[in-house]
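cron nightly-structures :: item 1 of 1
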Amino acid sequence: MNIFKKIIKNKIKSYKIYEDNNNIAILDKYPVNYGHTLIIPKNISTGYIFNINIKKYISLMKFSYKIAKLLKKTIKCKKISLSVIGLEINYVHIHLIPINKIDDLNFKKKIKISNKKLKILLNNIKNNIS
């Protein structure tokens, strides 16, 4: 069982922003930028986004849209970037990353953020859910 399936089944602690029947949004514990969020579909059996059926794809994108709007409302940044990579963990997932410049998307340079700051950020984001 990979780490995302363990998170979905609540076997690993995560900083869960929001979830619905099909998807979950969590703060990345090893972010490339402050507010880096992962969108994980709950019932996927592939590591490649273009192998999922169109209904699940649309659900994932609508969910990502909702969370991106929430992040933008909470975090001061120019844009929320959307990236789909899936090389480190072979499970479909989307990265939503607040950015101000292109260098904010360097996946080789992860930032350190304390559990305390992650909890504060999580609470700030949840306070903006309407």
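cron nightly-structures :: done
The chain has one domain: 3-127.
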